[in-house]
Design brief:
Largest sheet: 7 strands, mixed
Number of strands: 22
Distance between the termini: 60 Å
Strand content: 15-25%
Structural class: alpha/beta
Shape: globular
CATH class of the largest domain: Alpha Beta
Number of helices: 15
CATH superfamily of the largest domain: Aldehyde Dehydrogenase, Chain A, domain 1
Helix content: 40-55%
CATH architecture of the largest domain: 3-Layer(aba) Sandwich
Strand order of the largest sheet: 14-15-16-13-12-18-19
């Protein structure tokens, strides 16, 4: 059994099977489920470890993050295979995500040696002012199942870099990747209590983290509904918090777009990773003159996509992650039909050599932006095409959503590309690129209901994981 890590010790718990969505007969492993008492002990351990870790030497922290990056990269094939087995992402995507995690740890190992402050003259003669950053304290980390290596990495690495201690709860569906990353960090030399792993149910482990006043900050990635509960609990405890939640991301295709580029961007955005990305584009907003050609070409592209076991060579799209998500996807396909959208292709369960949650990507046309399939996040391989007359209407429809994470446009017009970058109401804008797919060294985050709090990744991560202190000195 894979155990939880609490105060530097591996701790038993009730065992839960981790099931491969590509082959439900394949048990990836047995993972211990933490309870409320385990979580309380983990928080207490993190609190006790904070004074020592927050004042530890820069080279000690640098070495641990550097070792972690090196081992993740050296084991990319093994860790990618584990990720693919438990989440259903294709092996190529899983290995790519693992490499990205290594790059994130490497980046923050470098940041350890670039920590800086400011020395300023006071308006009062003879007084100096120092502006520095200090760690927040005990940080709770709650991560989702769709990026089980990358998202933990982009929260854990900066939190450790800036001197915080951690209590980490991964999603129930993907404990294997989380356990592997924590094991690597533990063996890299983290002092006991600095990083604590508590796998288990959100209603138990997550709730215990929210209720405990010794958690000084909490970073969460997941659903909007859960994010709202996290926010309410953090406000009650005057706790710093950061939320990354849903998206209903638009991909605009203008008449002047390169059709091949537009189709590739749309297919990647909507269907790769089985559509299970908060940055996925499920609203394809297409102008009149190119609409029919775009739909025909995208339909042919979908026919060419191979849905199969995530580990098989030649698989483009793996299974849906679990039966509950599959049920949700099928429900929205039914809703789209009932609303009057036309299902051009897909939406059917598929049988493969192994028993898994296989769904053919679904494409709707004749959709409006007021339909539920155009308003609500589906989180599956389901996209709808919305016809508009021109760029101005396309921009208005793109922005007509409660979300604002990623927004894309396909065009050969510099004028429209420049205008869209300035006026798209999203945290990230892509021009002739898929809406999903971001770099590890630049900020990640959105607007509206998609995000709350400081940006994640890159140097902007310091805004959440540190507190600014201003000190005045008179000699």
């Amino acid at each position: 059994m894979h155990k939880n890590l609490i105060d530097g010790e591996w701790v038993d718990g009730e065992g839960v099977e981790n099931i491969n969505p590509s082959n439900t007969a394949d048990v990836v492993g047995i993972y211990a489920c933490a309870n409320e008492e385990d979580t309380e002990r983990a928080i207490a351990a993190a609190k006790a470890a904070f004074p020592g870790w927050s004042r530890s030497g820069l080279l000690e922290r640098h070495a641990i993050l550097r070792k972690t990056a090196d081992e993740i990269l050296a084991r990319k094939e093994e860790l990618g295979r584990l990720l693919s087995r438990e989440e259903g992402k294709t092996l190529a995507e899983a290995i790519g995500e693992t490499v990205r995690a290594a790059q994130i740890f490497d980046f923050f190992a470098g940041e350890m040696l670039r920590l800086a402050g400011e020395t300023l003259p006071s308006v009062r003669p003879g007084i100096t002012v120092e502006v520095t950053r200090e760690p927040v304290g005990v940080v709770g980390i709650i991560t989702p199942w769709n990026f089980p290596v990358a998202i933990p990495a982009w929260k854990i690495a900066p939190a450790l870099c800036y001197g915080n201690t951690l209590v980490f709860k991964p999603a129930e569906l993907v404990p294997g990747s989380a356990w592997a990353i924590v094991d690597i960090l533990h063996r890299a030399g983290l002092p006991k209590g600095v990083l604590n792993l508590v796998m288990g149910k959100g209603s138990v482990v997550g709730q215990a983290m929210l209720d405990n006043r010794d958690v000084d900050a909490l970073t969460f990635t997941g659903s909007v509904s859960t994010g709202k509960r996290v926010a309410q609990a953090c406000v009650e405890h005057h706790r710093k918090f950061q939320l990354e939640m849903g998206g209903k991301n638009p991909m605009v295709v203008l008449d002047d777009a390169d059709l091949d580029v537009a189709v590739d961007c749309a297919a990647n955005s909507a269907f790769f990773s089985t559509g299970q990305r908060c940055t996925a584009s499920s609203r394809l907003i297409v102008t009149d003159s190119i609409h029919d050609r775009f739909v025909d070409a995208l339909t042919e592209k979908i026919k060419s996509l191979n849905v199969d076991d995530a580990l098989k060579p030649g698989t483009h799209i793996g299974p849906v992650v679990d039966p509950r998500q599959l049920e949700q996807d099928l429900s929205y396909i039914g809703i789209g039909r009932d609303e009057g959208a036309r299902l051009v292709i897909g939406g059917e369960l598929l049988e493969r050599e192994t028993q898994g949650h296989y769904l053919q990507p679904a494409l709707f046309t004749e959709a409006s932006n007021q339909m539920r399939i155009s308003r609500e996040e589906i989180f599956g391989p389901v996209a709808s095409v919305i016809r508009v007359k021109d760029y101005e209407e396309a921009l208005a429809v793109a922005n007509d959503t409660e979300f604002g994470l990623s927004s894309g446009i396909c065009t050969t017009s510099l004028k429209h590309a420049s205008h869209y970058k300035r006026n798209a109401e999203a945290g990230m804008v892509m021009v002739n690129l898929p809406t999903a797919g971001v770099d590890f060294h630049v900020p990640f985050g959105g607007r509206k209901a998609s995000s709350y709090g400081p940006r994640e990744q890159g140097r902007y991560a310091a805004e959440f994981f540190t507190i600014v202190k201003t000190a005045y000195t008179q000699p």
